[in-house]
Amino acid sequence: MVRVLIAEDMHMLRKALVALLEFEPDIEVVAEFSSGADILPRAKELRPDVAVLDIDLPGMDGLTAAAELHTAVPECRTMMLTSLGRPGNLRRALAAHVSGFLLKDSTPDKLCDAIRAVAKGERVIDPQLVLAALDDKPQPLTPRELEVLLLASQGEGSAQIAARLYLSVGTVRNYLTSVVTKLNARNRVDAIRIAREAGWL
């Protein structure tokens, strides 16, 4: 019996997933959550075989939860579900030791087969996501530019970023201008959007 934990914030989709998996004689859903913050404490308690996680969860996103699960509950393998095939997310998922990565529009049979395969220690990745990752352009920003953009994405202004990184305000502005130019963005907000969609933030 494969014991599964599900985390998906869309109520109808989560209930549909639970109902679908409960039809399978060899799969048992042991817990379901709408928030990423619930995953780790319950996984430590229940020790599921597979955690099926939405990539975008409130509280803690699925990729962060997957990385923490790998450390805290290493016998629990994780499978990500996403509606957006962003190439950067696949790279981040592999770095977080995710065993499976499927698009949400996959067929029910494909999902169930993937859960069984992941439980056996296999890796299952949607071919469309692999192709998108292979076609992806390299990340053009320097580590410092990425660091400045990450702080900007968290709502910090130039003066706050400068204080955090021990830089002058002018240097921070120069970094942000460079980021906007390199990403062909309209402004800082657009640069943050582009970087997030590429999975660089």
UniProtKB/TrEMBL annotation:
Pfam families in the record: GerE, Response_reg
Alphabetically ordered keywords of this record: DNA-binding, Phosphoprotein
Entry annotated with the keyword Phosphoprotein: yes
Keyword Acyltransferase belongs to the record: no
Boundaries of every Response regulatory domain copy: 3-119
Positions of the HTH luxR-type domain: 134-199
Signal peptide (residue range): none
Residues modified to 4-aspartylphosphate: D54
PANTHER family: TRANSCRIPTIONAL REGULATORY PROTEIN DESR, TWO-COMPONENT RESPONSE REGULATOR
Entry protein name: Response regulator transcription factor
Organism per entry: Streptomyces cuspidosporus
Organism taxonomic ancestry: Bacteria, Bacillati, Actinomycetota, Actinomycetes, Kitasatosporales
